[in-house]
């Protein structure tokens, strides 16, 4: 009874701390979900959870596209980040999320003798994953990412009952309807597992990068774009400066061009505008 009261109090805490959880957390529960407020913003919290409970787990499921399973398996085998995994990290950085802390988590999981299962929808069209998402660059097997994650976990759990940790974004942990329609992962897990399931929503511990850090990331994304399209990076930057939407440049500013570049490197149009203005000011010496 004491442990149950302690657990309830932890669920209400603004800042989640694994050290406050009872050691027998998995005695009555098969599945614990750690919800991320910001992808990549909870490295130390997850490491502390794994330090305390890792040996009690059968497996760890991660909100990561299923088509990257081979890349993650390769990292577990030789400790090297392959081209596919590096590309995923850079894509996340383009969206403002530094998720390279996952490598520390991977190393810890490997240390305790476990592995990672990717259970999100696919980033590429392959096999059963053939329905293109209307809200992002994913291909579904079912009708949403939440449905795909639930079915992937459910199939595994039914074949191999055990103790599992799921690490997913808070948007999927919440109960209710997903943006693609249908129930969210949290609702489906609660209905499926009942009292054997519990969730914790983590608060961000690592701040998002400031704009100076983002500028360096975007510089690198543009360099990669230049290599992919066999162009000169300086030519792209020159065009970005020419079409920057700053006051006094209304006649030559070109929103469609900047939007196209933003889409190609995976950042928002708003952030591209800020980047273009910053580069133009640097060029003009302001």
Walk me through the structure:
This protein has 286 residues and is an alpha/beta fold. It folds into 2 domains: 2-201, Rossmann fold (3-Layer(aba) Sandwich); 211-284, no CATH class. Helices cover 48% and strands 12% of the residues. It is built from 12 helices and 7 strands. A 5-stranded parallel β-sheet has the order 3-2-6-1-7, sandwiched between helices. A two-stranded antiparallel sheet has the order 4-5. A hairpin with a 6-residue loop joins β4 and β5. α2 (43-53) packs parallel to α5 (102-111) and α4 packs across α9. The longest helix is centred in the last third of the chain and has 18 residues, at 211-228. The radius of gyration is 21 Å and the shape is elongated. The termini are far apart.
Give the fraction of residues assigned to helices: 40-55%
Strands, count = 7
Mean pLDDT: 86
Order of helix and strand elements from N to C terminus: HEHEHHHEEEHEHHEHHHH
Q: State the shape.
A: elongated
Low-confidence stretches: 1-14
Our count of domains comes out at 2
Distance between the termini: 65 Å
CATH topology label of the largest domain: Rossmann fold
Structural class: alpha/beta
Portion in strands: 5-15%
- In spatial order, strands of the major sheet run 3-2-6-1-7
Give me the CATH architecture of the largest domain, please: 3-Layer(aba) Sandwich
The biggest sheet amounts to: 5 strands, parallel
Give Rg in angstroms.
21 Å
Total of DSSP H or I helical runs spanning 4+ residues: 12
CATH class of the largest domain: Alpha Beta
Question: What labels would you give this structure?
Answer:
2 domains, 48% helix, 286 residues, 12 helices, Rossmann fold
């Amino acid at each position: 009874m004491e442990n149950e009261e302690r657990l309830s109090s932890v669920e209400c805490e603004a800042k989640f701390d694994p050290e406050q959880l009872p050691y027998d957390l998995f005695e009555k529960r098969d599945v614990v979900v750690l919800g991320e407020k910001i992808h990549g913003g909870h490295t130390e919290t997850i490491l502390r959870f794994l330090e305390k409970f890792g040996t009690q787990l059968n497996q760890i499921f991660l909100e990561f596209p299923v088509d990257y399973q081979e890349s993650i398996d390769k990292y577990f085998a030789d400790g090297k980040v392959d081209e596919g995994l590096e590309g995923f990290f850079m894509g996340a950085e383009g969206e403002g999320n530094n998720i390279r802390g996952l490598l520390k988590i991977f190393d810890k999981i490997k240390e305790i003798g476990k592995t990672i299962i990717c259970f999100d929808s696919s980033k590429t069209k392959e096999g059963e994953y053939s329905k293109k998402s209307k809200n992002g660059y994913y291909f579904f097997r079912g009708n949403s990412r939440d449905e795909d994650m639930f079915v992937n976990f459910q199939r595994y759990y039914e074949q191999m009952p055990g103790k599992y940790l799921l690490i997913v974004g808070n948007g999927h942990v919440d109960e209710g309807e997903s943006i693609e329609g249908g129930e969210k992962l949290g609702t489906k897990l609660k209905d499926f597992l009942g009292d054997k399931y519990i969730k914790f929503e983590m608060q961000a511990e690592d701040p998002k990068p400031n704009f100076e850090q983002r500028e360096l990331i975007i510089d690198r994304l543009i360099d990669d774009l230049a290599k992919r399209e066999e162009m000169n990076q300086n030519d792209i930057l020159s065009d970005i400066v020419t079409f920057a939407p700053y006051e006094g440049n209304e006649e030559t500013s070109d929103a469609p061009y900047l939007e196209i570049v933003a889409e190609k490197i995976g950042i928002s149009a708003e952030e591209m505008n800020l980047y273009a203005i910053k580069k133009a000011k640097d060029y003009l010496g302001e």
